From TrEMBL:
Residues 32-57, 812-853 are annotated as: Disordered. It comes from the Eukaryota. PANTHER family: TETRATRICOPEPTIDE REPEAT PROTEIN 39 FAMILY MEMBER (PTHR31859), TETRATRICOPEPTIDE REPEAT PROTEIN 39C (PTHR31859:SF1). This is Tetratricopeptide repeat protein 39C. Pfam families: Iml2-TPR_39. Residues 39-54 have a biased composition (Low complexity). Residues 812-831 have a biased composition (Acidic residues). InterPro entries: IML2/TPR_39, TPR-like_helical_dom_sf.
C-alpha cells in the first residue's frame, strides 16, 4: 500500500512535484500487474518504440497499468470515505426521510466499482454517474424531470464570466520580480487545484482578483477554454472567447496604464522593441539576433529595460490570443482560420516583445523577470511553433499571418524546458505536448505512431508524478493507450476520468467527452450493442451533434442485424438537420458541419433506393476508416471486418447479376444498367485500409487499382478518390517505394471541395513533413511543393489570399469588431507592414523547376497517372 501513501502525500503537497508513483516491492508488483497481463501481451508489439529525448526506459503497457491500478485503489478509498461520511450524517439526522432516501441511493451507487459496472453494461455506467451527479447537487429524479429550470440554477455557480470589468480600475503593476513571485503563489495553488480535479477551489482563487489582475483573469479564461474543448458546444466556445477577450482587454489596459505613468526611456524602448518584433522573427520565428546587454550597463541602469509588470501583462495578453486562436482553428471553417491567423499574429507580437527583453538581459534575466513570466514565454512560443508546424499549406494560405517558418523542434525544446522548471505553465505544457502527440498520431498513425507514442507515454507518466489522479491526464492516458493498441486499458482510463470528475465543475462535460471515446473503443472492438447504447445516450443528452450520434446509433444497429431499427434511426436525421438550421443556437461554422453534410448525403443515397441498397454499404466501418480506427485494432477484429466487407461486396455482385439477367430476357428494360461504383469503391478502400493495417500491403494493390481505373465514375462519394491516393501512398511507403509515395500524396492534395478535405490535408502534410525529415525527395513532389510554397510566399497579406472575396469579407468584418482601441489598430497596421517587408524578397529563393509529365507507372498502380494538375479531376 506504499503507492497509496505516495499518492496521498502528493495531493497534500500543493506545490511540490516530488511525489513519485512507483512499485516498492515484488508483492505490490504482482498485485498491481495481475489484472493487466492480457493488456501487456496485446501491447507488447509497441513496447520497443523509439524514445524521443528520454533518458530512461519504460515498459510501456505495464507502467500505465500500474498507474491505473493505483488509481483504482485510491478511488476505492475515496468511496469508502464518502460512505463513512454519509453514515455519520445519518446518525446526526435520523429523522429526515428525504436525506435517508438520498443517502441510501448514494450508497447503492457508490458500492459499485467502475471495473464491475462497466464491461458489457456501458449504459448503466453512464446512468450511475448521472444519478450520482443529481444526488450530489441535491436534484432527485423527479425534480430533474419536472423542473428543468431548477436544475439549471443549481449549476449557476459553475458559470465563468468576466462581464463587469472596469478597465479604468486596472492599476499599473510596479512589483519587482521577487515580489511578483510571492504575490502569485495563490495562482500556483489554483493551477494545482485545477489539474487535481478541485476545479471549484481553483475557480474561487482565480475570481478573487480577476477583474483587476491579468493573470487571475487568464486563469478563468483557461478554465473556460478547457471546458469549451471538452464540451464541443457553441455556447461554451462563445463563452470562452468572451472571457478570453476580457482577459486580453485587462492585460492591454494594464500595459497602457503603466506606459502612461512612465513616459520616457521605457516607452521609447518598448515601442522600438515592438516595431522590430516581426523583423527579428525571420527564419526560426524568434528574435535570434538580439545582442545581450552588458551586466554593468544593466546594473548601472544605462540600458533601459521594460518593467516586469508590463512583460507579465504581455504574456497574459499573448496567451489569451493563443487560446482564442486554437478555438477558432478547431471550427474548421474559412472564417475560423482567418480569425485564428489574426489572433496568432497578435499573440506572437506580444511574445516577441518579452522574448527580446529576455534575450537582451542575458544571464541576468532572473533578476529582471519573474520565473512565471519566463515560464509563460517558453510555453507560448513553443505552443505557437507546434500548432503552426502541424498545419498544411491549404490552411496556412488562409491564415497568411506570418513570414517565417514554424520550427517544431524549437517548440518541443521550449515546452520541455517549461515543463522542467515546474512553474505556472508547466501543467499546460504537459497538456499541450500530450494533445500534440495524441492528435497528430491519431491523424497519421501509419507514419507517426512509432515516433510519438513513446514520448506521449513518458510525458503522461511525468505528469502523473505530480497529478496522480488528474481527470485531464487520465483522459490523455486513455488516448495514449489507444495509440499503443491497448483498447481495454484505454476504456478503463476513460472510466476513471469520469469517476475522478464527479461532484466537480466539469463533471457533465467530462462524462460526455469520455463516453464518446468509450463508444468509439467499443466500435473498434466490434462491440456494436454497447456502442449503440452509449451513442443513443449522448444523443439524448444533446452532446456535440445530435445528427452524428443518431447516425452512429443507426450504423451500430445495422451491424447488429437490426436493419429496421437502423432505417428508423436514419430516417430521423434529415428532420434533425432541419431543426438545427432553424435553431438560433446552431453554428454553420462548427466543426460538425462537414461530418453532418457527409451523413446527409449518405442518407439521401439510401433514400433514393428506398433503403434497398443498405447491404452494399457498411456505415460503421466507413466512419471508422475516416477516423483511422483500423490502425488501433487487433487482428481478430480486423479479420471480422474483412469478412463483413467481403459479404457486402458479394451483395453488390448478386445485384449486378440479377440486373444483367433481366437485360438478357427483356428488350430495353426500364431497369437501368447496374452502376454501383461508389458503393464498391468505398468497400474496396476499406478493404485496402484493413490490409495495410494488418501489414499485408501487397494484397491491397489490386483493390486500389480498381478504384483508380474507375475514378471518373465515382461521382457521389467524392472523398473516395483523394483518400484512395492517400492509401496508395501508404502502400508505397511500406513496400520501400517512399519517393513514389510522396507523389501519390501530392496528387491527393490536388483535389478540392470534397468531404473531410482539411482532415486529409492534415494527414498529407504530416506525412510529407516526415518524408522531408528523412531526406526523401521525389521530383514530382518537389515540383508540386515548390508551386505550393511559391503561392504561399506571394500571398503577402490576407488581402492577396487566393481564397478570394470570401476571405476579404470575413477578415474585414472580424478586424472591424476587434478594433475597439487605438493601440490594437496600431498593432494590426504594424503587423501588416512588417509582413509585407518580409515577403517582398521571399520569392527570390523560390526554386523554379521545369514542368514534367508523369510517365505511366508499371508496378503498384499501373493505371495511375501523375499529371501535376492542381484542378479537381473528379468526373461529373
Amino acid at each position: 500500500m506504499e503507492s497509496q501513501a505516495i499518492i496521498t502525500a502528493s495531493l497534500k503537497q500543493d506545490t511540490s512535484p516530488a511525489a513519485v508513483l512507483d512499485v516498492s516491492n515484488a508483492q505490490d508488483f504482482e498485485f498491481s500487474s495481475a489484472g493487466d497481463t492480457a493488456s501487456s501481451t496485446i501491447s507488447s508489439r509497441r513496447s520497443s518504440m523509439s524514445s524521443f529525448g528520454s533518458n530512461h526506459d519504460h515498459t510501456t503497457p505495464l507502467e500505465l497499468g500500474l498507474v491505473i491500478n493505483a488509481l483504482q485503489t485510491s478511488l476505492t478509498e475515496q468511496q469508502q470515505t464518502d460512505e463513512q461520511e454519509q453514515e455519520a450524517q445519518l446518525k446526526r439526522k435520523p429523522t429526515s426521510a428525504t436525506c435517508t432516501a438520498q443517502a441510501e441511493l448514494s450508497e447503492q451507487a457508490a458500492t459499485v466499482l467502475p471495473s464491475t459496472t462497466f464491461r458489457s453494461k456501458g449504459l448503466k455506467r453512464e446512468q450511475t454517474v448521472i444519478v450520482d451527479y443529481e444526488l450530489d447537487h441535491g436534484v432527485n429524479a423527479v425534480t430533474a424531470a419536472t423542473t428543468p429550470k431548477e436544475r439549471s440554477t443549481t449549476g449557476s455557480a459553475n458559470v465563468i464570466a468576466l462581464d463587469h470589468v472596469d478597465l479604468k480600475s486596472v492599476k499599473p503593476n510596479s512589483l519587482t520580480p521577487r515580489e511578483q513571485e510571492k504575490a502569485d503563489e495563490p495562482i500556483l495553488n489554483a493551477i494545482h487545484h485545477l489539474f487535481s480535479n478541485r476545479f471549484m477551489k481553483a475557480k474561487r482563487i482565480f475570481e478573487e482578483h480577476a477583474e483587476t489582475d491579468p493573470l487571475h483573469a487568464l486563469g478563468l479564461g483557461s478554465m473556460a477554454f478547457l471546458k469549451a474543448l471538452m464540451s464541443n458546444n457553441k455556447h461554451s466556445s462563445d463563452n470562452a472567447l468572451k472571457v478570453l477577450m476580457s482577459t486580453y482587454s485587462i492585460a492591454t489596459a494594464q500595459i497602457d496604464n503603466s506606459t502612461k505613468r512612465n513616459v520616457g526611456g521605457t516607452v521609447v524602448q518598448f515601442l522600438s522593441s515592438y516595431c522590430n518584433t516581426i523583423k527579428f522573427s525571420r527564419g526560426s520565428g524568434v528574435p535570434t539576433k538580439v545582442a545581450p546587454a552588458k551586466p554593468k550597463a544593466l546594473e548601472t541602469h544605462k540600458v533601459n529595460t521594460i518593467p516586469n509588470g508590463i512583460l507579465r501583462a504581455h504574456i497574459v495578453k499573448a496567451e489569451a490570443c493563443l487560446q482564442m486562436a486554437i478555438l477558432y482553428l478547431l471550427q474548421e471553417s474559412i472564417t475560423g482560420y482567418i480569425k485564428c491567423g489574426l489572433n496568432m499574429r497578435r499573440a506572437y507580437s506580444s511574445y516577441s516583445v518579452v522574448w527580446q527583453e529576455y534575450k537582451r538581459m542575458g544571464q541576468l534575466h532572473n533578476e529582471y523577470i519573474d520565473r512565471d513570466t519566463i515560464s509563460g514565454i517558453q510555453f507560448g512560443i513553443g505552443a505557437v511553433h507546434l500548432v503552426l508546424s502541424a498545419l498544411p499549406q491549404k490552411i496556412l494560405r488562409v491564415v497568411a499571418a506570418f513570414g517565417w517558418k514554424a520550427d517544431k523542434h524549437l517548440g518541443f525544446a521550449l515546452l520541455k524546458l517549461c515543463l522542467e522548471n515546474r512553474r505556472a505553465r508547466a501543467s499546460m505544457s504537459s497538456a499541450m505536448l500530450l494533445a500534440y502527440y495524441t492528435t497528430l498520431t491519431s491523424l497519421c498513425p501509419q507514419i507517426l505512431a512509432e515516433e510519438y507514442t513513446q514520448p506521449a507515454i513518458e510525458t503522461l507518466l511525468d505528469a502523473q508524478k505530480v497529478y496522480p489522479n488528474s481527470t485531464i491526464f487520465l483522459y490523455f492516458a486513455g488516448k495514449t493507450s489507444r495509440l499503443a493498441r491497448n483498447l481495454s486499458l484505454s476504456t478503463q482510463s476513460f472510466v476513471y476520468s469520469i469517476e475522478t470528475s464527479k461532484r466537480e465543475w466539469a463533471e457533465v462535460e467530462v462524462l460526455h467527452m469520455c463516453n464518446y471515446e468509450i463508444g468509439f473503443n467499443h466500435m473498434m472492438n466490434n462491440n456494436w450493442q454497447e456502442a449503440a447504447a452509449i451513442f443513443q445516450g449522448l444523443f439524448k443528452e444533446k452532446y456535440w451533434s445530435q445528427p452524428i450520434f443518431k447516425y452512429l446509433t443507426g450504423a451500430c444497429l445495422d451491424m447488429m442485424g437490426q436493419r429496421t431499427e437502423a432505417i428508423l434511426a436514419f430516417a430521423e436525421i434529415p428532420l434533425l438537420m432541419k431543426s438545427n438550421k432553424s435553431s438560433s443556437s446552431s453554428n454553420k461554422n462548427s466543426n460538425t458541419h462537414g461530418i453532418e453534410q457527409y451523413i446527409l448525403r449518405k442518407i439521401e443515397l439510401f433514400q433514393s433506393s428506398g433503403y434497398q441498397d443498405m447491404s452494399m454499404t457498411l456505415c460503421a466501418l466507413e466512419y471508422m476508416y475516416l477516423f483511422n480506427a483500423y490502425e488501433f485494432m487487433q487482428v481478430d477484429q480486423l479479420e471480422q471486418n474483412l469478412a463483413l466487407t467481403d459479404y457486402a461486396l458479394s451483395k453488390i455482385l448478386e445485384a449486378e447479376k440479377l440486373e444483367y439477367g433481366i437485360r438478357t430476357t427483356e428488350l430495353l428494360p426500364e431497369t437501368p444498367p447496374p452502376a454501383y461504383y461508389d458503393q464498391r469503391a468505398a468497400l474496396l478502400l476499406i478493404k485496402a485500409s484493413i490490409f495495410n493495417a494488418m501489414g499485408r500491403y501487397h494484397e491491397s494493390v489490386i483493390h486500389l487499382n480498381w478504384i483508380m481505373d474507375h475514378k471518373e465514375k465515382i461521382t457521389t462519394d467524392n472523398w473516395i478518390v483523394p483518400f484512395a491516393f492517400w492509401e496508395v501512398g501508404i502502400t508505397s511507403w511500406n513496400i520501400n517505394q517512399k519517393a513514389r509515395a510522396q507523389g501519390f500524396w501530392e496528387k491527393a492534395l490536388s483535389y478540392t471541395n470534397f468531404d473531410f478535405e482539411y482532415k486529409l490535408a492534415m494527414r498529407v502534410n504530416l506525412a510529407l513533413t516526415k518524408a522531408s525529415e528523412l531526406g526523401i525527395v521525389d521530383g514530382k513532389a518537389e515540383q508540386a511543393l515548390s508551386r505550393e510554397y511559391e503561392e504561399y510566399e506571394q500571398c503577402e497579406t490576407v488581402h492577396q489570399s487566393p481564397c478570394g472575396s470570401e476571405i476579404l469579407e470575413a477578415a474585414s468584418d472580424y478586424e472591424q469588431e476587434e478594433e475597439d482601441e487605438d493601440n490594437d489598430k496600431k498593432e494590426d497596421d504594424d503587423d501588416k507592414s512588417s509582413t509585407k517587408s518580409l515577403n517582398s524578397d521571399s520569392t527570390a529563393h523560390t526554386v523554379n523547376l521545369p514542368h514534367k509529365i508523369a510517365d505511366k507507372i508499371e508496378q503498384v498502380v499501373d493505371q495511375l497517372r501523375l499529371n501535376g494538375s492542381k484542378e479537381p479531376t473528379i468526373a461529373a
